[in-house]
Amino acid sequence: MDTETPLQYQPFAAVPQLEKLRHELFVNVPEAERKMSLAMGVACIVYGLQQRSLSGVLLAITGGAAIYRGATGHCPLYEAMGKPAVALAHAVEEKVVG
Q1: Does 70 map to a domain?
Q2: Whole domain around residue 63: which residue ranges?
Q3: Per residue, what are the HEC states of the chain?
Q4: Which of 7, 73, 75, 81 could form a disulfide with 27 if both were Cys (CB 3.0 to 4.6 A apart)?
Q5: How many angstroms separate the CA atoms of 91 and 39, rounded?
Q6: Cβ–Cβ < 8 Å for 44, 60
Q7: How many domains does the chain have?
Q8: Which carries the bigger pLDDT value, residue 57 or residue 10?
């Protein structure tokens, strides 16, 4: 078998349950925190652009990152710190507590 040939057949690529699981494991920001990130992101962008300065642009960029975090539910910083996905944390909590 040639090891240089890419995988041509992906048997689990079209399984809807796997897509749902991938999404659940990607989301590591709780719902309330996501809403707050969206609101703060919009506020940072609006205020930052009104400043018409370099610091204002940097604030607007930070607001964009907050909007990404709120919209996707994924925080790269949380991931780097090892914070588990929300669904995984809830599943563990249910097993331990109840």
Answers
A1: yes
A2: 26-97
A3: CCCCCCCCCCCCCCCHHHHHHHHHHHCCCCHHHHHHHHHHHHHHHHHHHHHCCHHHHHHHHHHHHHHHHHHHCCCHHHHHHCCCCHHHHHHHHHHHHC
A4: 73
A5: 28
A6: yes
A7: 1
A8: 57
**Has residue 1 got a pLDDT over 70?**
no
User: What does the pLDDT average to over 76-97?
Assistant: 85
- Asked if residue 64 belongs to a domain, the reply is yes
Confirm whether 6 is domain-assigned.
no
* Number of C-beta neighbours around residue 38 at 10 A: 17
> Does 89 fall in a domain?
yes
